[in-house]
Every structure is written in structure tokens, then in C-alpha cells.
Design goal:
By secondary structure, the protein is mainly α. The chain folds into two domains: 53 residues, Winged helix-like DNA-binding domain superfamily/Winged helix DNA-binding domain (Arc Repressor Mutant, subunit A, Orthogonal Bundle); 56 residues. The two termini are 37 Å apart.
Length: 114
């Protein structure tokens, strides 16, 4: 999916060539077909080639994935998810990043008061 989001559209061969330590061409095609069956990808035919594109905009896919992770691992709690992220990356966050996170929290507080 990362390759398709970066390129916008790609053939199975282009996806394979963009992957570090890529699996076989047939494995890439099989994975693209699975992603299509699950509704994440669509294809159009261009002569003998299939051109694959993401079905969802990256932001929608990101939100859906985050919701799924929160439900699966954090009992649906954004607080627990954010706490886990901060625990994992707290030593790697710069002061600027911490400031932006604080601003996002303040914006969320303001929105919830409305």
C-alpha cells in the first residue's frame, strides 16, 4: 500500500521493484489481488497490464487503521493509544514535536468545550 500511495498508481512489477528485498512477482500479484478483494485497491486494464490504485485516500485509510488498532489493542481508548505511543517514542521527541502535540491536545480541549 505504501508504494501505491507514494506512486498513486502502479503495476505489480512497479510495486515489486519499489520494495526492499522484494518477494516474487507472483507473490506481489497475489497480495495485490487480496488487497483488491478486501476493498483497499482497484485495478484498470492498460493493454495486457493491470494498473493498481488505492481505493481510499491515504488519510481515510490512516484513520481507519488507527481506529482498528485502538479497538484491537487499546479497548477503543485514544488515551491508552497515545500513552503507548509516547512511551515508545518519548526519548525521540524533540521539544518542537512535544510543543505541537501539546497544541493538538489544547485544540482538542477547545473543540470538546463547544
Amino acid at each position: 500500500m505504501d508504494v501505491l500511495y507514494q506512486k498513486g498508481r502502479a503495476t505489480a512489477l512497479e510495486v515489486q521493484e519499489s520494495l526492499p528485498d522484494p518477494p516474487s512477482y507472483s507473490a506481489v500479484r497475489a497480495l495485490l489481488r487480496i488487497l483488491e478483494d478486501k476493498g483497499h485497491v482497484r485495478h484498470e486494464q492498460d493493454g495486457p497490464r493491470y494498473i493498481f490504485t488505492p481505493k481510499l485516500h491515504r488519510d481515510k485509510a490512516r484513520r481507519s487503521a488507527i481506529r482498528h488498532v485502538m479497538e484491537t489493542f487499546f479497548d477503543g481508548s485514544p488515551e491508552q493509544a497515545v500513552a503507548a505511543l509516547l512511551d515508545v517514542s518519548s526519548s525521540k521527541l524533540s521539544q518542537d514535536e512535544l510543543g505541537r502535540l501539546a497544541q493538538l491536545i489544547e485544540n482538542a480541549r477547545s473543540e470538546s468545550r463547544k
